[in-house]
Amino acid sequence: MANAAIAAGATGRPVKYRSMSSDRRWAMRWSYFFLVLFVIFFLTPPLYMFITSLKSSGEISAANNPWWVYAPTLSNYAELLGQNQFLVFFRNSALVSVCVVAITMVISVSAAFALARMKFWGSATLATGVFLTYLIPDSLLFIPLFKMFAFVRDTTGIELMNHWWTLIIIYPTLSVPFATWIMIGYFASIPKELDEAALIDGASWMQTLTRIFIPVAMPGIIAATIFSFTVSWAQFLYPLAFTTSTDQLVLPVGIVTTLIKGDVFNWGQIMTGALLGAAPPLIIYAFLMDYYIAGLTAGATKG
Amino acid sequence: MAQVTLRKVIKKYDEVLAVRGVDLDIADKEFIVLVGPSGCGKSTTLRMIAGLEEISGGDIAIGGDVVNDVPPKDRDIAMVFQNYALYPHMNVYENMSFGLKLKRTPRQEIERRVKQAAQILDITELLDRKPKQLSGGQRQRVAMGRAIVRDPKVFLFDEPLSNLDAKLRVQMRTEIKKVHQKVRTTTVYVTHDQVEAMTLADRVVVMNAGLIEQVGSPHDLYHSPTTKFVAGFIGSPAMNFIPCQVEQAAGALRLRLNDKLAMPVPASRTNRYNSVVGRPNLVLGLRPEHITETRPHAEPDQHDFEVPIEVVEPMGMETLVYFTLNGIEICGRVNPNAGGVAGQPMKLRADLSNMHLIDDTTGKVL
After folding, report:
1. CATH code for the structural domain at B240-365
2. Residues B351, B301: contact at Cβ < 8 Å?
3. B193 DSSP 8-state letter
4. What are the residue boundaries of the structural domains of chain A, listed by start?
5. Is it true that the peptide bond before B243 is cis, omega within 30 degrees of 0?
6. Is B337 helix (H, G, I), strand (E, B) or coil?
7. Which of B52, B87, B139 sits opposite A194 (nearest CB)?
8. pLDDT (tens digit, 9 = 90+) per residue, B318-351?
9. Burial B355-365, CB ≥16 within 10 A → b, else e
10. Helix (H, G, I), strand (E, B) or coil at A26
11. Residue pLDDT, tens place only, B70-126
12. For residue B220, how many C-alpha atoms fall within 13 Å in the half-sphere facing its CB?
């Protein structure tokens, strides 16, 4: 080392030590480099969808620059929104998602509170069990679910197949375990003294949950809400398997089954539908993110 | 009336005994401090009084009623936690009124009590703030305010000052004492800091390994400890423990520290120590302030000796000097101007009128 430094000195080049600020500048450059890379990678598909949605069928199949719109038209939007069908898909999706989110949050928040705080016999095993159910791939659940539905029909006469509302029963099997897991983690991070203080203040378990835990765990609840909304809004396999009639379809399946006729792909409308379908989650996230970041937990205890 | 009584209280975690039979009578309006090293069972005892921890055996009574199976909210207690445990989403007013609201107290009454408590604690201008906008000391005041508004039978404090910095801790300590003088509620206070215990308590309860070592006023614990543990735990720097023997010397008793050093036992103690002459495993307990520099006039029970000083620690108002006797490090407190120099011999004076003789086999002060 010493020899190297002397050699460097001899050739007239002083050894340079990078200053803190220059270190920081380089770190920032690299961060921006990768951020830009990410943005390009993730925003290119939606941009392509947007560009395509503004083209007529003729222009899409023409062999010119796919990244440029020569004759912009809103005909895809007009046609899609003019169809009653598309609005039905949208309504089905919205109803299913809202109901699933509501059911998921009620079940998972109360389950997580019980598992995280009320120490009862087997609570730790149950908590692990909840997570394990999430690890079962959805596609393995088709056949058991079909069997169960057939059993329900045979015993009660209630037909569960081919109804959009059936999805409200099915989706929570996917969303509840994970949402519960998120909430267990979040509740566990709330200091034990907070519920002890509430207990001494005279709160029942229910009051502790509704008046202390839910407000304090709001960021976690929002994360779980976003998750369960995404699961039900974007779900494709289950509605494809369990619903068939056009008026019972939800958005992702509806777009694919009605806009692809045989081997004819109506690309303009598919892209338009996909873009419109992506809008609600986008708006909800943008709205909730602020709340999420606000972070309500600061100041509860030492800090 | 809110006296608290503990009778043979036991806490067992699986097979481990955390509290091994505690008996304690706390009088109405008394300020009791439970103190001890970590793991001595003091927090567990407090939490059992609060009802946050089930008791495995014995009885706890508050105001004469046994509360073993009474849930915390019906015990009429208020607790202040080490990490404050304020509700982060509520402002100070809401934090303080939460308990009263749950009890369906009329709105005007809630407002009156919160305002009054805020005045006592000097936090009136903070009532609209959220906990995260408060400093550590302010948060601790709010936590106390939450306790005061409920006007409980008993206040329970679980190491409330441990999260504060040293200066604020001293300030809040005085604050707590003032509040107690104003509201006069029976208080049980847990701390591992013996200075806090001494300054706050009417009576201090020293706990060790799940048992009470000694209960007494700060003065009693300091000057008449009954066990070696209490003698060593209370006081800073800690009491010196020097192995010694008691021998007969012409009708009087003599304390032999080593081959060269022996001092006469104070005449007033001759009867007390007569039975331990020649017994092994005896320890002389002498506080640092009773090992001083020599002064012109010696009292009857003061004896001078010379030792090489090893470390000198000037504290400002006094200087701590350390030397070794029989391989044990001994600390003395001398006047800053006495001129102790590390590495050089110094004449020191031991004041045996304040000595303690301890049987090291039983750990009891004789």
Report:
1. 2.40.50.140
2. yes
3. -
4. 77-294
5. no
6. helix
7. B87
8. 999 999 988 899 999 999 888 888 889 999 999 9
9. bbbbbeeebeb
10. helix
11. 999 899 999 999 888 999 989 999 999 999 999 999 999 999 999 999 988 889 999
12. 12
Cβ within 8 Å, pair B88-A298: yes
- B155 three-class SS: strand
As a CATH number, domain B4-226 is 3.40.50.300
Written as one string, the DSSP assignment of B250-303 is TTEEEEE-SSS-EEEPPGGGHHHHGGGTT-SSEEEEE-GGGEEE--SS--TTEE
- What is the value of pTM for the model shown? 0.79
Taking the C-alpha atoms of residue A60 and residue B115, their distance in angstroms, rounded to an integer, is 72
Residues paired with B211 in a beta bridge: B208
Helix axis angle, A267-294 to A218-234, nearest 10° = 170
SS (H, E, C) B46-60: HHHHHCCCCCCEEEE
Q: Where in chain B is the domain with CATH 3.40.50.300?
A: 4-226
pLDDT tens for residues A1-51?
444 444 444 455 666 666 778 888 889 999 999 999 999 999 999 999 999
Higher pLDDT: B45 or A17? It is B45
Choosing among A194, A199, A201, which should be mutated to test the B contact, i.e. which has the most B CBs within 10 A?
A201
Structure tokens at B113: 């009590």
DSSP letter, residue B134: S
Cβ–Cβ below 8 Å for A302 and B79: no
ipTM of the shown complex? 0.82
Task: Give me the numbers of helices (H) and strands (E) for chain B, helices first please.
Answer: 9, 22
CB neighbour list of residue A249: distance below 8 Å, 6 or more residues apart: A88, A89, A92, A164, A239, A243, A257, A258
Strand order in B302-308's β-sheet?
Answer: B291-293, B345-351, B302-308
Within 37-56 of B, beta carbons closer than 8 Å to A belong to 50-52
State the architecture of A77-294 in CATH terms. Answer: Orthogonal Bundle (1.10)
**Residue of A285, A292, A164, A279 whose CA lies nearest to A218:** A292
Greatest alpha-carbon pair distance for chain B in Å reads: 81
Q: Please report, as a single letter, which amino acid is at residue A74.
A: L
Instruction: Please work out, in degrees rounded to the nearest 5, the angle formed at the alpha carbon of residue B355 by the alpha carbons of B365 and B291.
Output: 140
Q: Distance between the two ends of chain B, CA-based, in angstroms?
A: 38
Stretch 171-230 of chain A: residues touching chain B, C-beta under 8 Å: 191, 193-194, 196-203, 207, 211-212, 215-216, 218
